[in-house]
TrEMBL record:
It holds the Pfam family NAD_binding_9. Gene3D superfamilies: FAD/NAD(P)-binding domain (3.50.50.60). PANTHER family: BLR0577 PROTEIN. Residues 55-207 form the FAD-dependent urate hydroxylase HpyO/Asp monooxygenase CreE-like FAD/NAD(P)-binding domain. It comes from Shinella kummerowiae. This is FAD-dependent urate hydroxylase HpyO/Asp monooxygenase CreE-like FAD/NAD(P)-binding domain-containing protein. InterPro entries: FAD/NAD-bd_sf, HpyO/CreE_NAD-binding, L-asp_N-monooxygenase_NS-form. Residues 268-291 are annotated as: Disordered.
């Protein structure tokens, strides 16, 4: 096991609470002069052996799911840093964003993969036990405000933390500039020059997303307030057509904005709504071919068969096709994977990302008014005052620059393990949106959770292998 060195820390403020020890660190220094903000939660008994140092880049849903997986499945002492450029853990449910409905139903939002109904049961026990919704139907199909989902995730985070006496959790606000593997460890460098080394780094953030979600909401409402002052307001343009755009557009209308809105999106169509239920079409075994063309011929043929067998169940067919493509992916050479990333990934993402049925119905009604319409997908040459970027697509090129590697040599396996020209880069894992910039998914939260647990188990196997060698 390589030796572990803790970053140098200056403690400037300390607050004691029950059981957990919480220390607020407004002035954090790693190996440079930069400053940040950190919260330190400790539940560790006195021990002599050094703790494994782990970084989780991203304090959103993927980062929290990864940290919960670490606390539940990594059975040795560790110190985990939750690093985010702007947000504290759980902030995805703050402010107006928290009013927006989750894009996926409750049945698909469990943070515990072996208990897929965990969020539904939490809703039932916490809010719906005696309510009319519980008497009419279960909460499995509900799309709830994101603030409520945030409460569930943070509750499960706290429960997992309370069961571990041998770990430390820190949060740090800072922008990671690069993540470079070095001698069985990974070195992170931050924007202000700070540096820190970790035994393992999970990249669980939307690298390359054109604008952070909270920024999109602030910009949209600021533009709407400004344009509302005009007697004949000019057009407000929204870039993108994913769940973020859908929630933002409906919130603008609900807030009273009546000016014209244009939607500029590559597909020129709304995201599809979720179907009812969660039955999944069955596909035959994938081909052993190493050709992307053969893989898509197989998927197209199986889709036609599934559509004939289950008419109207297009969502089940698409879900099955996505799972099959992930299986076929393992056999594809790097050249074919790059072809998929360049030419097919965007389309695959569009058909795999869905919104609530009620949200889709309201969007259709809004388009029928004529106040809102799709326009050419041509992107503006530069920033435009009345254009708000709502795109959510991660950038593989930004990820490659972060790692200092050739994009055409990068790939990700099923466990989120990063590969360089087919060889594993130990110490680095991609989870959620970051992984979906290089491979077929995950595009939905349930698959992100499963990938997080696989990534943790994969890290544990590698850790044991290192320990046995040393």
């Amino acid at each position: 096991m390589p030796s572990k060195t803790l970053p140098s820390i200056k403690y400037t403020k300390k607050v004691e609470i029950t059981e957990n020890r919480v220390i607020m660190l407004p002035d954090v220094s790693f190996q440079g002069a930069g400053k940040g903000y950190c919260m330190f939660i400790e539940r560790v008994a006195r021990q002599e052996s050094p703790m494994m140092q782990i970084a989780v880049i991203g304090a959103g849903l993927s980062g929290l799911a990864t940290t919960i997986a670490l606390m539940k499945r990594f059975h040795q002492p560790f110190e985990a840093w939750l690093i985010d450029a702007q947000d504290a853990p759980g902030s995805f449910g703050n402010g107006p964003v928290g009013r927006a409905l989750t894009s996926e139903p409750a049945r698909d939002l469990s943070v515990i993969p072996d208990r897929p109904d965990d969020f539904s049961d939490w809703l039932k026990g916490s809010l719906l036990a005696d309510g009319p919704i519980a008497s009419l139907r279960g909460p499995q199909d509900l799309h709830v405000p994101r603030a409520l989902f945030r409460d569930y995730v943070m509750a499960r985070f706290s429960e997992a933390l309370s069961l571990r006496k041998d770990i430390r959790i820190r949060t740090f606000r800072g922008e990671v500039r690069d993540a470079i593997p070095q001698n069985d460890r990974v070195r992170l460098r931050f924007r202000e020059g700070d540096r820190a080394e970790f035994d393992h780094v999970f990249i669980a953030t939307g690298f390359g997303v054109a604008r952070r979600e909270a920024d999109s909401w602030r910009a949209a409402h600021a533009a709407a307030d400004r344009l509302s002052q005009c007697e004949d307001p000019p057009v407000l343009t929204l870039l993108g057509n994913g769940p973020r755009f859908a929630s933002l557009l409906l919130d603008l209308r609900a807030s009273g904005y009546a000016g014209p809105i244009h939607i500029r999106a590559a597909t020129g169509s709304l995201p599809q709504p979720h179907g009812r239920g969660h039955d999944r079409a069955s596909f035959g075994p994938p081909p052993a071919s190493r050709s992307l063309r053969d893989a898509f011929h197989y998927i197209r043929r199986e889709c036609r068969t599934a559509e004939n067998r289950e008419p109207g169940q297009w969502q089940s067919v698409v879900d099955a096709a996505s799972l099959r493509l992930s299986a076929v992916w393992r056999n594809l050479p790097q050249k074919e994977r790059n072809h998929y990333r360049r030419h097919l990934l965007h389309l695959h993402r569009h058909f795999s990302t869905r919104i609530a049925r009620d949200t889709h119905r309201r969007l259709v009604a809004e388009l029928e008014t004529g106040r809102t319409q799709f326009v050419s997908s041509r992107l503006p040459a530069g920033p435009e005052e009345n254009t708000v970027d709502c795109r959510e697509t991660p950038s593989a090129s930004v990820l490659a620059r972060l790692l200092g590697m050739d994009l055409d040599l990068l790939s990700v396996n099923d466990s989120g393990g990063l590969l360089m020209d087919g060889n594993p880069l130990f110490g680095l894992s991609l989870v959620g949106t970051a992984a979906s910039s290089l491979r077929p998914g995950p595009f939905v939260f349930a698959e992100t959770v499963r990938q997080a647990y696989r990534a943790v188990l994969d890290m544990q196997r590698h850790t044991f292998a290192l320990a046995s060698r040393s």
